[in-house]
Amino acid sequence: MYPFLRMVWQMFKHRNDPPLPLTGTHESRHICMPWDIDLWMELNNGRTLTLFDLGRIPLAQRVGLIPALRRKAWGLVVAGGSVRYRRRIRAFETIDMRSRAVWWDDKFIYIEQSMWKASGECANHILLRTAVTGRDGIVPPQDVMAETGQEAACPEVPDWVRAWIEADNTRPWPPMQE
After folding, report:
1. 177 within domain boundaries
2. How far apart are the first and last CA of the chain?
3. Positions of the chain with pLDDT lower than 50, given as ranges
4. Which of 8, 48, 65, 133 gives the lowest tally of CB atoms within 10 Å of its CB?
């Protein structure tokens, strides 16, 4: 089940945090609960993706996106991602999450997120291709920024983000065609 109560808590907890620029970093703290673990008694890989929502949605709130979504009846989607899992997160372990937009093009906003253990080790890291959608499909990031009042210049695309985009573009779609 989706962690609605945890999402409400994160939104409430960060409701008065200062606004962030589009590329600002949102930091949040989370606990791996028993219902987040798998048979190996560690944070389930699928649940990791869900928990990243708990950092990404408050980030959207802090950059002014949530009011724009409501005004325009827009939605948020994930259009792709790449995750690195490097350290186990066990039940009741506290992690710090960092979330930020790193770059955007004419359709997508690329967001990176990471979970950090109390030891200072990075447990996992994700790069997401995200989009804002409206009735007519994907809303260009420039239109989203205008609606949120975030008239930021697009940063240089990091080499590792460019390489991931290029590699992902070589994948066949639809997949597994014979």
Report:
1. no
2. 36
3. none
4. 8
Answer yes or no: is 25 within a domain: yes
- Per the confidence metrics, is the pTM higher than 0.90? yes
Q: What is the pLDDT of residue 152?
A: 83
Q: Is residue 133 part of a domain?
A: yes
DSSP 169: H
Structure-token match 């980030």, residue found: 59
For residue 160, the domain's CATH number is 3.10.129.10
CB atoms within 10 A of CB 75: 12
Domain that holds residue 54: 4-11+21-169
| DSSP state string for 28-74 | EEEE--GGGB-TTSBB-HHHHHHHHHHHHHHHHHHTTHHHHHHHHT-
